[in-house]
Design brief:
The complex is a heterodimer of chains A (551) and B (362). Chain A has 551 residues and is an all-alpha fold. Chain A has 29 helices and six strands. In chain A, the strands form three sheets. Chain A has a two-stranded antiparallel sheet. In chain A, strands 3-4 form a two-stranded antiparallel sheet. In chain A, β3 and β4 form a beta hairpin. In chain A, α9 runs antiparallel to α10, α22 packs parallel to α25 and α26 packs across α27. Chain B has two domains: 33 residues, no CATH class; 320 residues, Alkaline Phosphatase, subunit A (3-Layer(aba) Sandwich), CATH 3.40.720. Chain B has an eight-stranded mixed sheet, sandwiched between helices. The longest helix of chain B is centred in the middle third of the chain and has 20 residues. Classes of the chains: A mainly alpha (551), B alpha/beta (362).
């Protein structure tokens, strides 16, 4: 039953002449296209397999997964102990290292301390754990069967970007990635939005922890009978003084602004500076539970270190108006939820996010038809991301010849697709992530909240192209840092060069090699007697070639 | 991209202008003809733009120590009068910018204060976009002002190094139809193999892959073409081998390295007319600090890097101008977190022989 419906759909897609400037799309072309856009490129033989089993069947299976995480990867990911380290423990290590450093500085240690963005010295364990995060991205991108889910997770992380180098975000990010982004990447946009707003990582990154009703201050801690005796009154005073100097004393609009500008309405979404301020007022008190050494001994509540907390004392309880909608006084934490729901359903948000999705999956300049399809489905499905994706994939624009093979791969996409194309895999070190960084996209290190861009102008410049060529050569000769796997398992050696090059075309380029590229490669390997060298050269040139830069 | 016929007739390099030819090819042909004169500087002047991303607090760079309001509005983060390096009795340098004082004294440093965009957006990205595209309030401008300059001012030898940005990505300010190069590190720029013959061979192979008529089109094609031309020229001139002169001491880190390499490019006569580098970390919403602290550390790096650059270039600074810029400034009044929020105007520094120094303008 399923099969015949899919067959009809595929027939419909392939038989409509308007879809392709070059004529009706073949099932191989469709397979290549979905593996380019909805996955990190094909692995050897995957294009044939998907074409044979049915392109839309593959798409539906990808859309139908119950969660982003691929259970088949569980064993591989068991090395990554960042995934099983509780946030509270990470936070404690971080604060300990920070306190240690301050004590050293206070004691006259004149070392300048780390530059912003660099890890604090002296906690090698934290650094080891932190280095696992970008590598996780690569392992999943290359090896997960749930490819579309991984592509979406990357998209949403950039949309709700957080810079790992900001303060506590170094240790708050793992939970953000797993429990906020990956958990909600395929669900409802509203749920994802609310989850980001209630994440400690976001509250720290955009300074909402520093936003309080002007003049508000935390209630005095209830000093237990032993507290002062243990700490000594002088130590208590100096710590209290230091805390006072750092304590926030008013509104901080940073999160409110980016929430409207980047996460929901978009910069042209019709909000004013006044709206930004009102949103900031609504979100006062949305913060993170953190206890320094004094508070830890004096606190009465048990709250997990580094978890979200609503500080009622910091909240501005007055009446507000946002985008013309009144928010009556005295609604506490609940008015923030109400605000987020309103923003998630706002027409500007629907249009803005749909446009971004179409730019990611269809064309750098997203066609109106695609955007309209996405918006309509968003409304109908109440912001169900799966359904919106489905509508985009089924739109005519997605399959149109002018939109196929025209996007330039981002560094992450290039590296992941190159490793997949030669049937290799990343090892558990940090080194492949470093290669992505050297192409201009250090993962989790985009400082500004707008995240990494999708357009070719963001990635195509002379320096970066040369580095892609270098990485291509390294991969092909088995010298790429952080990669395991040999070409032996994938491309048979041959001293007949035309045969060799055709193998490379079929297996590594999925049949995309142009006559021009074929000629150049044959010329270059012409005088190479050593078949291993010839193969490495052919593969290196193929991955560095123009065809492989596009998807 | 259109070139005026006047340019060609004046150069006398080509008798006929055929509008069907790729302009990039033509320009390169013209340059190649005058290559034998490469021993002399090919361009007259160089502008080095240094973008401080994040909206730098100009009031902390050029401190209005003569203004009582400054101290009133910033009880926790004002720079104390006794550590400010006075410039003209009213303004002074942040102590960490002390390395720049000698340049003020010799007339090659100027500051322009309270300068900002006519558009009042307080969004970093928008404001950076407006400043880099040179069109405040308009988001649809596709190219940067530095690139547009290169498009229109064609009485300059077109070399791949005419417009260079240091960093992994080409910034907006140099985006556009005129060729511009993004270099992460001069020493590693190019296709790399174990031997230099290997590198040459592979470079040629990739160049063939990306040549016109093949599968490379659009931005991929033009970008590749520029890369290979640049690689050729770097090989010939070898700027990375040039040592630092006059005892200049660049601070360690990306900013120091970028400026040092810009200096090397200038000294190599490769035709750099516009160079760009950026440095982040200026968005001091929280705990800005005063004479010490977050912002002070950043200013220390900046001061050392600029001073080293000017020292390194020595006499050549007479034809160089370094201009710092930032997308907007910060509030005069400090905020609730011992920092400052987004304000309107900030300070720009002009450093070099082309600058009429020893003034704080604006």
């Amino acid at each position: 039953m399923m099969r015949s419906r899919l067959a009809v759909l595929l027939a419909a897609l392939t038989s409509t002449p308007a879809l392709s400037a070059q004529g009706p799309i073949t099932s191989l072309d469709s397979a290549r296209h979905v593996l380019d856009r909805l996955a990190y490129g094909p692995t050897p033989g995957m294009v044939d397999r998907v074409a044979r089993e049915g392109v839309m069947r593959w798409v539906d299976a990808q859309l139908g997964v119950d969660a982003v995480d691929d259970p088949n990867l569980r064993a591989t990911l068991s090395h990554f102990d960042i995934l099983s380290t509780p946030t509270s423990e990470l936070v404690r290590r971080f604060l300990d290292a920070q306190r240690e450093r301050r004590q050293r500085q206070a004691a006259g240690d004149t070392m300048m301390g780390p530059r912003p963005g660099q890890p604090p010295p002296g906690d090698a364990e934290l650094r080891r754990l932190g280095g696992q995060l970008p590598q996780l991205v690569l392992v999943r991108a290359v090896q997960s069967d749930r490819q579309l889910a991984e592509v979406l997770a990357d998209f949403w992380f950039n949309h709700f970007n957080i810079f790992i180098g900001k303060n506590l975000d170094r240790v708050l990010l793992p939970e953000y990635v797993e429990q906020v982004i990956r958990r909600h990447a395929l669900g409802r946009f509203e749920d994802l939005l609310i989850a980001t707003a209630r994440s400690p990582a976001m509250m720290v990154y955009l300074d909402n922890t520093q936003s309080v009703k002007p003049g508000a201050s935390p209630p005095l801690p209830n000093r237990g009978p032993f507290a002062i005796g243990r700490l000594g009154s002088r130590a208590l005073d100096s710590m209290r003084l230091e805390a006072q100097q750092r304590r926030p004393t008013g509104l901080n609009e940073n999160y409110a602004r980016e929430l409207l500008e980047l996460h929901t309405l978009g910069v042209n979404g019709g909000y004013t500076q006044k709206d930004v301020t009102e949103v900031a007022r609504i979100l006062t008190g949305w913060s993170v539970a953190l206890r320094g050494p004094v508070a830890a001994r004096l606190a009465r509540r048990t709250v997990e270190e580094g978890s979200f907390i609503f500080n009622a004392w910091a909240h501005d309880d007055g009446a507000k108006t946002v985008l013309g909608t009144p928010f009556p006084a005295g609604q506490g934490e609940e008015e923030g939820i109400r605000l987020l729901r309103m923003l998630a359903a706002h027409p500007s948000t629907i249009h803005f996010v749909s446009t971004k999705l179409c730019a990611k999956f269809v064309n750098d300049t997203p066609p109106d038809g695609c955007i309209d399809d996405a918006v309509r489905t968003w409304r109908r499905s109440d912001g169900n991301i799966r359904e919106v994706l489905r509508a985009i994939i089924r739109s005519q624009d997605f399959w149109a010849g002018v939109n196929r093979g025209v996007k330039v791969k981002t560094p992450l996409e290039f590296v992941a697709s190159a490793v997949r194309a030669i049937g290799a895999r990343p090892d558990s070190s940090f080194r492949l992530a470093l290669a992505v960084a050297q192409l201009g996209q250090p993962l989790y290190q985009h400082v500004a909240p707008n995240g990494y861009g999708e357009q070719e102008e963001d990635w195509v410049n002379s320096g970066a192209l040369l580095n892609r060529m270098n990485l291509a050569l390294a991969l092909a000769s088995g010298r790429a840092p952080g990669v395991r796997g040999t070409l032996d398992a994938v491309i048979p050696l041959s001293s007949d060069h035309p045969t060799l090059v055709e193998s490379v075309n079929r297996i590594v380029l999925a049949g995309r090699m142009s006559e021009h590229t074929r000629k150049v490669i044959l010329t270059e390997i012409g005088d190479l007697q050593d078949p291993v060298l010839a193969r490495a050269m052919a593969v290196g040139l193929a991955i560095g070639a123009p065809e492989f830069q596009r998807q | 991209m259109s070139l005026s016929r006047r340019v060609f007739l004046r150069r006398g390099a080509l008798g006929l202008v055929s509008y069907g030819l790729d302009p990039l090819f033509l320009d390169r042909a013209v340059y190649a003809l005058s290559a034998q004169r490469r021993a002399e500087p090919v361009n007259k002047r160089t502008l080095v733009c240094l973008f401080q991303r994040g909206a730098v607090d100009g009031l902390s760079m050029i401190v209005p120590h003569g203004d009582a309001a400054y101290y009133r509005e910033r009880p926790r983060i004002a720079i104390p009068r006794n550590v400010v390096m006075d410039l003209d009795g009213h303004f002074g340098l942040h102590p960490e910018l002390a390395p720049l004082k000698p340049f003020w004294d010799n007339g090659s440093l100027t500051a322009v204060h309270a300068v900002g965009s006519p558009d009042s957006t307080r969004s970093h990205f928008d404001a950076q976009d407006y400043m880099e595209t040179g069109s405040p309030g308009v988001k649809s401008t596709p190219d940067g002002w530095a690139n547009r300059y290169c498009q229109h001012a064609t009485e300059h030898a077109q070399t791949p190094f005419r417009a260079v940005a240091f960093g992994p990505q080409l910034p907006r300010i140099l985006a556009g139809s005129a060729p511009a190069l993004a270099i992460d590190d001069l020493r590693t720029f190019g296709v790399r193999a174990r031997t230099s013959t290997g590198s040459d061979r592979l470079t040629r192979a990739f160049e063939s892959l990306y040549e016109s008529g093949g599968p490379a089109t659009g931005l991929l094609a033009t970008s590749a073409e520029e890369s290979f031309e640049a690689v050729r020229m770097l090989k010939a001139a070898n700027p990375a081998a040039l040592s630092v002169t006059n005892g200049a001491a660049y601070p360690r880190g990306r900013l120091g390295q970028s400026l040092q390499q810009i200096a090397q490019l200038i000294k190599s006569n490769l035709g750099v007319e516009i160079a760009f580098a950026d440095v982040g970390g200026w968005d001091t919403h929280v705990n800005q600090g005063n004479a010490e602290g977050q912002l002070a550390l950043r200013l220390r790096e900046l001061g050392q890097a600029l001073a080293a650059f000017a020292t390194d270039l020595g006499e050549r600074m007479s034809e160089v101008c370094v201009l710092t810029m930032s997308e907007f400034g910060r509030t005069i009044r400090e905020n609730g977190s011992s920092g400052t929020d987004h304000g309107h105007a900030t300070a720009m520094l002009g450093l070099g022989g082309t600058v009429q120094g020893k003034r704080v303008l604006g």
